[in-house]
Design goal:
Length: about 220
């Protein structure tokens, strides 16, 4: 009996499929710190989410959105966004994780929002869309409020494209200030099942263009708050 050896591309493809499958059962991956290339799998008892109808924008954030200080794009610079998210003293975005999510982006599963100021990337966020669930992976900022602007655009986009779940994995003071909450695993799995349903094909995330301006996003936030 002979064994066939998988190519690096086949190995990466299998990892990508494993990541997608993990999301569907309530798990998610994180890499060990470089130089390790290992990936760890998490299934926490409590999970962070940001209710799509519960986004809270401060007066300052609304002013920032209306000022048009930042321009926001979708899927224009995925690699730069994931690199920006990895720019910290300790990061779980190792070489393996970066390769996986860049491959998922090429296959139209992973998406990024980029925040620009004078053509310079100053913030952004990225994650994976499956059915009506969006699994937020990370965000970063290089200017005050840039990551909040990215999240405001993301929530607006998810709402307009019919998403039901925005998974943030964990909670933080930053996310809590924007409406993020922590729920039990059992509650999360119920919400996940409702968001996934039988819808696995197609790409709801790309069914609508991103909001044309921060002023429009601010207006829609005011209408629903």
């Amino acid at each position: 009996m002979t064994r066939s050896r998988q190519s690096p591309d086949e190995d990466l493809g299998n990892l990508c499929q494993l990541v997608l499958a993990s999301y569907e059962v309530g798990m998610f991956p994180m890499g060990e710190e470089e130089p390790s290339r290992d990936v760890l799998w998490y299934y926490p008892k409590k999970r962070g989410i940001l209710p799509i109808d519960g986004f809270r924008a401060s007066r300052r954030l609304l002013r920032t959105l209306r000022s048009e200080r930042f321009a926001v794009t979708m899927n224009r610079a995925f690699g730069l966004v994931i690199d920006g998210c990895a720019e910290r003293e300790y990061t779980w975005i190792n070489t393996t994780i970066r390769s996986i999510y860049c491959a998922l982006h090429r296959d139209r599963h992973a998406h990024s929002l980029e925040v620009w100021q004078n053509e310079t990337l100053v913030g952004g966020t990225y994650g994976v869309a499956i059915g009506r669930a969006f699994f937020g992976e990370s965000m970063f900022f290089r200017r005050p409020d840039a990551s909040k602007v990215a999240l405001a655009f993301l929530v607006d986009h998810l709402k307009r494209t019919g998403f039901r779940l925005l998974d943030t994995q964990f909670t933080s003071r930053h996310l809590q200030s924007l409406g993020g909450i922590e729920i039990k695993r059992t509650t999360y799995l119920k919400l996940l099942g409702q968001a996934l349903g039988t819808e696995r094909t197609g790409n709801r995330f790309l069914s609508q263009p991103l909001a044309e301006s921060g002023a429009v996003v601010a207006q829609r936030i005011n209408q629903t708050s």
